[in-house]
Amino acid sequence: MRRGSKTLQQRLFIVLLFSMTGIVIVVSLLFYNRATEQLQRKISDLSSKNVSQTIGLFDLLDKGFDSLSKSISNNFDLVRMLQDRSAEPREQFANERSITNIIGANFFSRDDLIGIHIMTDDGNIYNYGNYINEVMPGYRSTDWYRSILSGGGKIVWLGIYPSSIIDSNETRPVLAFGRQLFDLDEHRPIGVVLYETSPAPILAALDNLKMSPNSEVYLVDADGDLVSATDGAKELPRLGDGKRPTVTGESLVAERDNQLVVSSRLPFAEWTAITVTPDRDLNVELVEMQRYLIIVGVALVLLSIITATVFSKTISSPLKRMIREMKRVELGNFQSQVDAGSYREMDALASSFNRMVRQIGHLIERMKQSAASEKNAELQALQSQVNPHFLYNTLDMIYWMLDEREEDDLGEVVLALSRMFRYSSHWEQGVPVTLGEELEQIRDYLTIITIRLEGRLVVEIDIPQELYGVPIPKMTLQPVIENAVKHGLEPLSGDGKLTLTAEVRDGRLLLTVRDNGVGMTEETLERLQASFSLAPTALVGTGLTEQGEARGVRQEGERDSSAAQGVVGPGKIGNISAEQSVVGPGKTGGGSTVEGLVDSDKLRGSFSEGSMLDQSKMRDSSFVMGKSGRGTAQGGIGLVNVHRRLLHTFGQGYGLQAESRIGEGTVIRLTLPLPPQVIRPGSAESEDTN
Q1: Contact at 8 Å (CB) between 670 and 656?
Q2: Is the whole model's pTM more than 0.85, yes or no?
Q3: Most CB atoms closer than 10 Å: which of 125, 535, 617, 631?
Q4: Neighbour tally for 58: CB within 10 Å
Q5: Is the pLDDT assigned to residue 456 strictly greater than 60?
Q6: Rounded to the nearest 10 degrees, what angle do helices 522-534 and 639-650 cross at?
Q7: Architecture of domain 74-201 in CATH?
Q8: What are phi and psi of 573, to 5 degrees?
């Protein structure tokens, strides 16, 4: 068929040219954006690195000066001599000489110290420096003196000053800090010590914050006043949002007047370092990158034209050969193998096509085997129904023999057992039962269990009549009831209570089985819940979808709700004991009371061997399965398998949930879909079957 006038070579040339050109443009834009992000990240990392290094420098300075100040404030001999008020001139001279020596030792321990000054509360002043000191009068009324007193013995950073704040002879810039002195025994203030050191280490640390040669760094105190600045710094800038970092090491970034402003909190004195960098210094690499991308983009477009021309000429020949080989396969020759003998991509395409042909052949063979296996399974299922029919027919005969001998209670057990076999032996693929039919099976089972437990079991069933026609998968409730009786109620030394309720919630049917048995340990409950969580993995590959789930619900909903008319109506099995009756023979209603007692030894003997309720059956029906965790119709389905069946039938959102506590019992909740034609009950009416 003619689809156009352009040849394959022309089409390939146009497609390749536009594709490669578009790719070049897109890649260039992405690369530019990526480079911009990396540049910004680089600037941020550089800023963080500078801040981290500066904080480290300030931290070292802080520790060094703090240790220096403590060497005087914690010197016991010095503090004692500062308080000595001896009247002897010789002793006073000796004390002053000793104090001066101690101060001098501290002074010469660091090269950057300019002066150390101790001022006691009784007016004595001790100084040590490189020159003769002249203390300024009125220092007690200064702000820095009051700041030291308010520090309570902690180091107080006063700031950087153009000259000494106490020595009128010292005109060099100083970094001043001090600490209040206390009596080490009575902890009362005795004076203050003032240190003046060179600000060069602080200024060097500030230079480390510069991000470019044109950057300016400012050091401000907690009140926002300028403490110091690098050379060339101008007016103190304001942060873009008016905020300052509050945590040591924290940095805030703001844009102001084509400048990047970075503020960082320093580790002492509540000082903040503010770095201002012009944007033009930061965008130098970005401008160079733009120029580079333009040149590379033009070169790549030219290369794309050449590549499209060459490739379009060389690709058409092997493609035609490939098409000829594939047409042979199209005619039905699945045994032929395609050999492109061309580019690596063509060879890969041919290999993929060959694998696909082989897989199709394998799938056809597998479908044949699956069809044969399905036929064999149907024959085996039909064969397996012969023996159950013979068994429950024999049980019916035994029932009528007991009825003739007026063994009513024992006959009731045999009849219930017969009905259970009849119910469980019919498994029709895709045909659900109603909730009423499932309840009839549960009542037969509880009839046997109640007599077996000699009246220690109390059962309550609270299910509205209008829910009896709801379709549910067969054998959904019995494994849950059986598990509650065997593992929850039988180990009890006293009476046990089993409650079965149903309600409509959020358009779904919620069945609850509750017992007051021994309960489960947290480890067992977690293992059970983990099995529920892992159950969906068994459904991988089943093809369940929301549409399939809705279709399954709709098919079950189309089942006539009148199918429940022949089952037992709403009732309540309450306080059932060996002296009370269960559902009578052939009754589908509430049942009638039969007077008389049953020989408990005879009843127990009837369950000792060969019963469907023996210990192996009960073990198989528990959720703790030692084998594969999969049940069968003959040997206990199990909680996990019920959960998997509901997931398989209805999809996600349906299944079992478990709650349990040791000594309080267990609650199992079953969530099932509700057909739209079912009447939503306003309230649940209890049924009573006594």
Answers
A1: yes
A2: no
A3: 631
A4: 21
A5: yes
A6: 30
A7: 2-Layer Sandwich (3.30)
A8: -85, 100
